[in-house]
């Protein structure tokens, strides 16, 4: 398996891309990572899926957004429009070679960003979305994330359960949560994102996999019912929520299902 690291120019600084496979492959997949520590916890499973896709003939690129991973910038400088620019810059880089298809593959917040990218920037460079357990509501994600701050403060004996850290951040205070400096700009922008019925749903086909779930949640089922035509395929897949659980190195049922779905969508017949 061929692996190369690349730095490309982004709008705010250099972006790091981890590229797997033959760069001239007919089908390309761009991975958009989840938020904060979920990005680190999911790396092993994501890399495993990337290798599996590479063996099936795909070119796979893993993006580190500005301010995250090995890309330039600090986390508290990051903003959602900048991350959308990072996605666009990477798609331009991928598009330097002729492709039959380009898939945006997003995990958790990455899935919501993929949908928002198509809604905001169009689908000219994207043929489909592959969503792993996508976040449906950014406000809910941020609310859950700031609970980590509350729990940490309480466990250290200095917590005040009357302090609403999420609100304080939205009001302009930079609040450190689990080692991440949360700026009001980024938090408010993520909070405003949601997976709502919109014209973007008509622009691309979508493979939606509810990872670590025995069945499709009601919120996802409701969205499915509002989806136009047959543009959405949604399935549940049992397993460990590896983006939350340390030392999780594989998610076989998920990676096998993902490869199957992409092969069917692209008509790829590699062994």
Automatic annotation (TrEMBL):
Hydrolase listed as a keyword: yes
Serine aminopeptidase S33 domain residues: 46-148
InterPro entries: AB_hydrolase_fold (IPR029058), Hydrolase-2_PEP (IPR017532), Hydrolase_4 (IPR022742)
Superkingdom in the source lineage: Bacteria
Keyword Protease: no
Pfam families, per database record: Hydrolase_4 (PF12146)
Keywords: Hydrolase
Listed GO MF terms: hydrolase activity
Designated name of the protein: Hydrolase 2, exosortase A system-associated
Lineage: Bacteria, Pseudomonadati, Pseudomonadota, Gammaproteobacteria, Oceanospirillales
């Amino acid at each position: 398996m061929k692996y190369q690291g690349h730095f490309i120019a982004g709008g705010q600084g250099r972006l790091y891309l981890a590229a797997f496979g033959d760069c001239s492959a007919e089908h390309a997949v761009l991975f958009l990572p989840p938020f904060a520590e979920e990005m680190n916890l999911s790396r092993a499973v994501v890399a495993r899926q990337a290798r599996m896709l590479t063996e099936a003939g795909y070119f796979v690129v893993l993006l580190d957004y500005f301010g995250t991973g090995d890309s330039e910038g600090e986390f508290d400088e990051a903003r959602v429009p900048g991350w959308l620019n990072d996605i666009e810059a990477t798609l331009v880089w991928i598009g330097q070679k002729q492709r039959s298809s380009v898939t945006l593959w997003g995990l958790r917040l990455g899935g919501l960003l993929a949908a928002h990218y198509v809604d905001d920037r169009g689908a000219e460079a994207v043929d489909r979305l592959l969503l792993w357990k996508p976040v449906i509501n950014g406000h809910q994600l941020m609310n859950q994330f700031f609970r980590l701050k509350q729990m940490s403060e309480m466990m250290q004996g200095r917590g005040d359960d009357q302090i609403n850290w999420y609100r304080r951040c939205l009001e302009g205070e930079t609040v450190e949560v689990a080692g991440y400096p949360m700026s009001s700009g980024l938090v408010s922008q993520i909070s405003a994102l949601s997976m709502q019925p919109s014209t973007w749903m008509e622009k691309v086909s979508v493979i939606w996999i509810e990872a670590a779930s025995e069945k499709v949640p009601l919120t996802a089922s409701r969205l499915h019912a509002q989806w136009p035509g047959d543009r959405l395929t949604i399935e549940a897949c049992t397993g460990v929520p590896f983006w939350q659980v340390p030392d999780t190195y594989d998610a076989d049922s998920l990676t096998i299902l993902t490869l199957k779905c992409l092969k069917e969508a692209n008509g790829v017949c590699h062994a």
